Amino acid sequence: MTARREASAPPDLPGYEYVRVLGLGGFADVFLYRQHLPRRDVAVKVLLAGSLDDDVRQRFQTEANLMAQLSHHPSIVTIHHAAIAADGRPFLVMEYCSRPGLAERYRAERMPVPEVLRIGVRLASAVETAHRAGILHRDIKPANVLTTDFGWPALTDFGIAATTGPAAQTIGMSIPWSPPEMLAEHPGGDERSDVYALAATIYSLLAGRTPFELPGGNNSAQQLVARIERSPLPPVGRDDVPQQLQAVLERAMAKHPSRRHASAVAVARALQEVEAALRLPVTPLDLPDDPGGAAGDTRSDDDATRLRGVAVPGAAIGRRVDDEDATRARAVVVGRPTLVPPAPAPPAPPPVGVPVGPEPRRGARVAAAAAVVVVAAVGTVLVTTLGGADPTGPVAPTDSLAAPQTGPAAAPVPAPHSLAGTRAADGAVTFTWQNPDPQDGDRYLWGVLAVTGEPTLELVDQESVTVPADQGTGEVCIQVSIVRADRSASARPAQGCAP
Question: Which of 304, 337, 354 lies at the terminal end of a domain, its last residue?
Answer without folding.
Answer: 304
